[in-house]
Design brief:
CATH topology of the largest domain: Chitinase A, domain 3
Radius of gyration: 32 Å
CATH class of the largest domain: Alpha Beta
Structural class: alpha+beta
Strand content: 5-15%
Shape: flat
Length: 285
Amino acid sequence: MKIRSLTYLFLFSLALTSCNKNATEEETQEKLIASIGTDQLTEAEYKESLIHADTKADSIAFAKKLIDDWVLETLLYQEALTKLEPQEIDVEKQVNEYKKQLINYIYETKLIENNLDTIVSNEEIQDYYNNNIDNFVLKDNIVKVNYFKVPIQSKEISKLKKLVYSNTDKDKQQLEELCMQNAESYFLNDSLWLLLDGIKRDIPAMKGPLEYNVVRGRIIEFADAEAYYYLKIKDVKIKNSASPLSFEKTNIKTFIVNSRKIKLIQAYKQQLLEKAKANKTFKIF
């Protein structure tokens, strides 16, 4: 957000500088669309902005708005020049500072793209988790589930009811295929944790007290006027307890990669400093 703000201010400052330039002999020969004092909206500038309108109707409206906006902004700018203190108007130092920060940011991004190792091994993730276990506390309840919601008019409901109680690989595959073809939503991955609130929003029977609804091994199976629901709770982790590694894996990987980014840029800056010292181009007075 900071860099984005710096970019806007930098571009705005450049626009002010351009807006205030005195008309040269070449510019006075160019056709003008509008002028206020020495500030001018030329035909070339006008047409450059006008090409962004999509239709004829839009072009007419856009053309009028373009001139109106230019007039209002120019009047405000001219008023500002007479009301602000000289030190407030002198933005050159700020512009140069913002320009330096923006260029540094662009270069740092390029350095990261070209040099950063983004591969994080499972061993690194496990080590980080073990060394920072106290930081991984659940803020929400999470569950492992087998779940599907099928429209009540589906002809496959009876077959689904039989397949969910089978443990053979063939039946599990068939269950997956039927869910893909018929279910409004489903989840059959036993290894992934889901937020309990997300499941509750889709299953009316789970909107009661937490201790009643969420018990490991419990099966919720019912139908209403819209759908048939099936859910089996495979495992439960309650908020404020230790968050499992599988639930934190993506966050840990992101943290490790971000730490590498910081170290890479710091190391590169240090190399530049050592080089400047060796070349005696760096001095402190």
